[in-house]
């Protein structure tokens, strides 16, 4: 038998997927027990040079015609975007009884539960391994390999752009703007980088991981999200001095109040498994019982990593192994109860630019004391009377809403020159 | 529907598996879409206190009766050992049309291909994720998640005992014997540690990984195997000085001559992903196209990690997702063509104890020169005329058989006091 594919979207990932299917057809056939063939393709511009001949496939100008075509068993959606063409294609394909493979994290984070329900009602597979850390079979690990575990926490480095930027800043001492420009030139960051550097991309992926880990529907809106835009070379320097690496970390964990999800630049102790992940590499750290910790590391984005995940999903479907998108019956997915990050307890890094005058430190210390926050370390280098100098404090465990009050009160002091910087310190 | 299990072998792993199935029954039912229940158990000694009540299950004194029981859908073999009871149980269960889940690496490395053929002929699943690095779903990643890739190389830290020993030696400067004794006291090493410290356990696991990665039958006999028994604190010290960590590494790779498999204590550059794996942790590094590198890290042994893998296999079977043990049809598994390690090219670390006399270095250098081996670095600390002192050399890339000749010739020198130490240097 032959599994017949239709591919919509022929950018870098689409081209790599087609190329790999061709080059590895024997491996893929052995592993899936079926021939896998691309029959139809669709993209915005037929004439664009993609390095291969689209004439070999049936071209569809209208992606919906492909998604519902009689010639196709599996639709591969590589258009991207939360709504629009991607969502129309996904719905049409599933409703027409086609399996759907997608790399679209934005769509899955927002509409995944609904799409999974349609897939289930039509008895077809919705597969999206490529949506999260493509080069790492993390969703499969959570849904299947570690299926016997009660997962307590999933965390990770989920955005290669951010990790490249903070790694490069740390290794070279250069400024954020400087490294961002370089990342854009190298193709690691988009012309409009907001989606990556403000943590949105990582939050979408985290919400998908959390849904699978905790048996719920993705709840992207409840991810407390910030990015790396305000990471300065000064904080990178202090991080080193304190034994930390700054990393954009996403964490989803069970708490007594519900599932808590957050994405932020964190001070990460050098011995922490995620502190050692450098450059564009992604990592997913799964913590559960009885397994303990399992860490998966690999390329997160780019043609090769994404094509690898798309092909893994296709082989699963061809093998008759197509699993449920979120690992459970769509009907059994609960709306996860949400714990706000404000109830979280942890330690923090705070940097304040203060006018170096007598009594300033006492003023700041009083604010900490008044709020019941205990300071773990205090750093100030040199003195420059009447100028703004950086003062860094780290705290013992305290509450997030308390520390936000402290920071607000520090910022209101006449001697504090800029908005203070607050970062979570990840515990080991 | 209910999936009915029979468990043979109720040691640490068996007990943890039973306990986890009980504690996580709701998670497991949601993920597998079925109730999973233990119906029958068997072990050598019924009366032994295992911390739970075996009376809840039907006890079988004869494991073969369990393996062929009408009440059972899945047999879980946790006895261990290459042959004997484990193999009898495996064959009987598969031939009786039961799915078989096993943690038995020795049996799979030796008899896996034959068992897979029986399973296939009976249309049941043979599953052994727990046989290799239990806490890491590495076999699943190779067979399924990365199924679209052509795998070029699989390597890893596959034995926690060895890794604990070399990590501890490196961190404390203590001797091998000393650390081994401690490992035995902590339960990380067996009373007879040969199986672990001579690399046999790692070689069994490597041969299973290689079979899956390259679509062949496991060929344990062709793994060039040595262990950590001859790692000295002196070599650990030199390793540090040269920027290496000593790690017991297993490597299986495609070469133009066939598949090459080796397990040995290696000098591993500090920036190498496997150099950072400490203590009893295991790691599997998968290199393929188009994915690049994917690294999986986690606990390799112990009740929790092994039970996690066993349960993952059970959920797969209960979900109707039971895959083929080696990822391909048993009939399509080839006997892999074997490349002997003697044809390998790489760089090496050599330590020689030489009597410190004039002309000794020239004699040694001449041997390297005559064999066409170029020295990359040379270390000798201090001088002790007429006493044996350590001299360390690292080489540029050379051939394995050549360097073995060099070492033999060095050892034959009158001024060389002990058999020289030879270790592979892993390249980044």
Summarize the entry for a quick read.
Chain A has 428 residues and is an alpha/beta fold. Helix content of chain A is 36%, strand content 26%.
Domains of chain A (count): 3
Number of helices in the DSSP assignment of chain A: 14
Structural class of chain A comes to alpha/beta
Give the name of the CATH architecture of the largest domain in chain A: 2-Layer Sandwich
Shape of chain A: elongated
Compute the CA-based radius of gyration of chain A. Answer: 24 Å
Compute the separation of the termini of chain A in Å: 51 Å
For the sheet with most strands of chain A, the description reads: 11 strands, mixed
**Residue ranges of chain A: pLDDT <50 for 5 or more in a row?**
none
CATH class (first level) name of the largest domain in chain A: Alpha Beta
Portion in strands of chain A:
25-35%
Question: What does this 3D model show about the protein?
Answer:
- With 428 residues, the first copy, chain A, is of the alpha/beta class.
- Chain A folds into three domains: 2-131, Rossmann fold; 138-299 and 335-341, Dihydrodipicolinate Reductase, domain 2 (2-Layer Sandwich); 344-425, Alpha-Beta Plaits (2-Layer Sandwich), CATH 3.30.70.260.
- Helix content of chain A is 36%, strand content 26%.
- Chain A has helices at residues 12-23, 25-32, 63-67, 84-95, 105-122, 138-145, 160-172, 176-186, 194-197, 200-214, 233-242, 303-318, 360-370, 400-412, and strands spanning 2-8, 35-42, 58-59, 74-77, 99-102, 126-127, 150-157, 224-225, 244-255, 258-269, 281-289, 292-299, 345-355, 375-380, 388-395, 398-399, 421-425.
- In chain A, the strands form two sheets. In chain A, strands 7, 8, 9, 10, 11, 12, 13, 14, 15, 16 and 17 form an eleven-stranded mixed beta sheet that branches. In chain A, strands 3-2-1-4-5-6 form a six-stranded parallel beta sheet, sandwiched between helices.
- In chain A, β4 (74-77), α4 and β5 (99-102) form a beta-alpha-beta unit.
- Chain A is elongated and about 80 Å long.
- The termini of chain A are far apart.
- The mean pLDDT of chain A is 95.
- Chains A and B meet through α1, α2, α6, β12 and α12 of A and α1, α2, α6, β12 and α12 of B.
- β12 of chain A pairs antiparallel with β12 (292-299) of chain B.
């Amino acid at each position: 038998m032959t599994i017949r594919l239709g591919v919509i979207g022929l950018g870098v990932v689409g081209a790599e997927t087609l190329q790999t299917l061709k080059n590895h057809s024997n491996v893929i056939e052995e592993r899936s027990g079926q021939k896998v063939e691309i029959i139809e393709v669709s993209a915005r511009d037929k004439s664009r040079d993609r390095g291969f001949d689209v004439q070999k496939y049936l071209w569809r100008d209208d992606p919906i015609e492909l998604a519902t075509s009689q010639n196709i068993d599996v639709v591969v959606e590589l258009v991207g975007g939360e709504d629009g063409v991607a969502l129309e294609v996904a719905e049409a394909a599933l409703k027409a009884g086609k399996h759907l493979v997608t790399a679209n994290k934005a769509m899955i984070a927002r509409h995944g539960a609904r799409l999974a329900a349609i897939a289930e009602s039509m008895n077809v597979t919705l597969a999206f391994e490529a949506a999260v850390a493509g080069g790492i079979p993390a969703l499969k690990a959570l849904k299947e390999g570690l299926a016997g575990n009660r997962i307590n926490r999933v965390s990770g480095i989920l955005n290669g752009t951010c990790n490249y930027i903070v790694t490069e800043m740390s290794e070279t001492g250069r400024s954020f703007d400087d490294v961002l420009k370089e990342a854009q030139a190298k193709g690691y960051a988009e012309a409009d980088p907001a989606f990556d550097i403000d943590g949105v991309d990582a939050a979408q992926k985290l919400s998908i991981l959390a849904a699978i880990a905790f048996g719920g529907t993705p709840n992207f809106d409840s991810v407390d999200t910030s990015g790396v835009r305000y990471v300065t070379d000064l904080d990178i320097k202090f991080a080193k001095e304190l034994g930390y690496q700054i990393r954009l970390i996403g964490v989803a964990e069970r708490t007594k109040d519900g599932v808590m999800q957050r994405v932020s630049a964190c001070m990460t102790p050098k011995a922490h498994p995620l502190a050692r992940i450098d450059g564009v590499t992604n990592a997913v750290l799964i913590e559960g019982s009885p397994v303990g910790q399992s860490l998966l590391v690999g390329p997160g984005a780019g043609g090769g990593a994404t094509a690898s995940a798309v092909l893994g999903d296709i082989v699963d479907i061809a093998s008759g192994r197509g699993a449920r998108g979120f690992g459970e019956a769509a009907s059994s997915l609960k709306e996860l109860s949400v714990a706000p990050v404000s109830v979280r307890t942890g330690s923090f890094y705070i940097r304040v630019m203060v006018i170096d005058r007598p009594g300033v430190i006492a003023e700041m210390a009083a604010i900490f004391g008044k709020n019941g926050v205990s300071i773990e370390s205090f750093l100030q280098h040199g003195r420059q009377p009447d100028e703004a100098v950086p003062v860094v404090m780290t705290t013992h465990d305290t509450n997030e809403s308390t520390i936000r009050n402290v920071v607000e009160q520090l910022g209101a002091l006449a001697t504090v020159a800029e908005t203070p910087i607050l970062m979570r310190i990840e515990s080991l």
